Amino acid sequence: MALYFVWERVFFDPFLYLGGRLVDPQYPLMIAAKKKAIEELPQFVRLFKERPNDSTIKFAFETDQAETEFLWGDLLDLSETEAKVFLRTPPINHEGLLEREMTVPIDSIVDWQVEFSDGTLRGGYFNLVLFKIYEREEGAMHPKFLEQVARYKGLPPKETG
User: Fold this and answer.
1) Can you give the pTM of this predicted structure?
2) Contact 22/129 with Cβ under 8 angstroms?
3) Residues 6+ away with beta carbon under 8 Å from 109
4) Half-sphere exposure of 112 (CA within 13 A, CB side)
5) Spatial contact of 114 and 121, defined as CB atoms under 8 Å apart
6) Which residue among 18, 30, 123, 152 has the highest number of C-beta atoms inside a 10 angstrom radius?
7) Span 58-97, pLDDT tens digits
8) Contacts of 129 (CB under 8 A, 6+ apart)
9) Where are the domains of the chain?
10) pLDDT tens digits, 87-126
């Protein structure tokens, strides 16, 4: 029992496991997360203009194995039709060479996230669903996950002036 407690408190890194969970894209919470992220895309565009170095997007990517995977990338530039990203999460089922900088259609964006200087996050709706799934499957939320969930906040008010 003591060994388990030491493992859980000192060595266990839940972040190694969260991203590896396969989730059905038709899962109702995933559908709702995508819908919310797309609805709030105009607010994200505003936030990106304010915080261009702290913005990431999750986008659909067609692999060379004819599979759609969802990848995260740092947003470098954004136009009305395209997003230029630096790839953070490479695809699993892709055998060919892949440039880390790529341009993707804006309609391939399914989620987004912006980090603020105080450590809080906006967006990241898919991540929040993964936390809920983890909690449901494991029966409780790991304390390190609770720290991460607490970083997510609602959208800041629009600046006036």
Assistant:
1) 0.79
2) no
3) 37, 38, 41, 57, 58, 59, 83
4) 28
5) yes
6) 123
7) 999 999 999 999 999 999 999 999 999 999 988 988 999 9
8) 23, 27, 29, 30, 32, 33
9) 27-149
10) 998 898 899 999 999 999 999 999 999 999 999 999 999 9
